[in-house]
Amino acid sequence: MRQNAGVTADDSQQKQAAPRRAPGRPRTIDREAIVDAATACYWQEGPAGLSLNEVCRRVGVAKPGVYREFGGEDGLLAAAIDRYRAHVVVPLLDLLNSDRQFMDALDDVLAMITMDDGPAGCLLVEMRLAPGRLGPVSRERLDAVRAEMLSSYAERYARAAAREETDAAIDPAFAASYIDAQLTSALMRVRRGDDPATVTRQAHLALQALQPG
Questions:
Q1: Which pTM does this prediction carry?
Q2: Least enclosed by CB within 10 Å: which of 46, 54, 89, 184?
Q3: Cβ within 8 Å of residue 55, ≥6 positions away
Q4: Which backbone phi and psi does 158 adopt, to 5 degrees?
Q5: Using CA atoms, how far apart are residues 14 and 59, in angstroms rounded to an integer?
Q6: How far apart are CA 52 and CA 96, in angstroms?
Q7: How far apart, in whole angstroms, are the C-alpha atoms of residue 83 and residue 23?
Q8: Rounded CA gap, 149 and 61, in Å?
Q9: Cβ atoms of residues 147 and 180 within 8 Å
Q10: Which H, E and C letters describe the chain, residue by residue?
């Protein structure tokens, strides 16, 4: 037997009394879900090959909503960089800055970036390869994260050198750029489909150059 098939008079009166949303009033959007989905899109394919319209289609949000919430694609890209920093860069730096021997810590980092279950490659590398898509906000955010990483590499290398775990004759800033180059190369190779285990072994061999002579 069908129940509650109709609307009672009381229900009708309540509906009439309920305030209606003003025409044109923007719908509430889930900012965190949008940032997560957009980050995944940019990470998997890079911003160079994705228009904002395509990102909006995949994320499931109208383009005006992106402008209301983020001020445009520049703000969305900046939010994606922040999300990647929190989920990938900070854990990476935590591994590197552990109390383990320097080369062991680097091996932990290599394992993280080549064997992780997330999308292959690096969002920051993809951003750097598409400078024309970045606006002033996202470009500044990208530069800040990269500077943070290089500074952390240099500081960690200097501590390792003081403990005679690395070659003290190598300037920490130079060592930081070398580490960055090797990690970036490993990420790009995994991205293009090279065997992660082989990439890891070869990167480990290259990083042995930083050990004391």
A1: 0.81
A2: 54
A3: 38, 41, 42, 73, 76
A4: -60, -40
A5: 36
A6: 35
A7: 34
A8: 33
A9: no
A10: CCCCCCCCHHHHHHHHHCCCCCCCCCCCCCHHHHHHHHHHHHHHHCHHHCCHHHHHHHHCCCHHHHHHHHCCHHHHHHHHHHHHHHHHHHHHHHHHCCCCCHHHHHHHHHHHHHHCCCCCCCHHHHHHCCHHHCCHHHHHHHHHHHHHHHHHHHHHHHHHHHCCCCCCCCCHHHHHHHHHHHHHHHHHHHHCCCCHHHHHHHHHHHHHHHCCC
Q: Using only C-alpha atoms, what is the Rg of the chain?
A: 24
Dihedrals phi, psi of 20, to nearest 5 degrees: -95, 150
d(CA 50, CA 63): 14
Per-residue confidence of the chain (213 residues) as pLDDT tens digits? 333 434 333 444 444 444 454 444 455 678 899 999 999 989 888 888 788 898 899 888 889 989 999 999 999 999 999 999 999 999 999 999 999 999 999 999 999 888 766 677 889 988 988 888 899 999 999 999 999 999 999 999 999 999 999 999 999 999 999 999 999 999 989 888 899 999 999 999 999 999 997
Q: What domains are there in the chain, each with its CATH number?
A: 27-210 (1.10.357.10)
Write the single-letter amino acid at 102: F
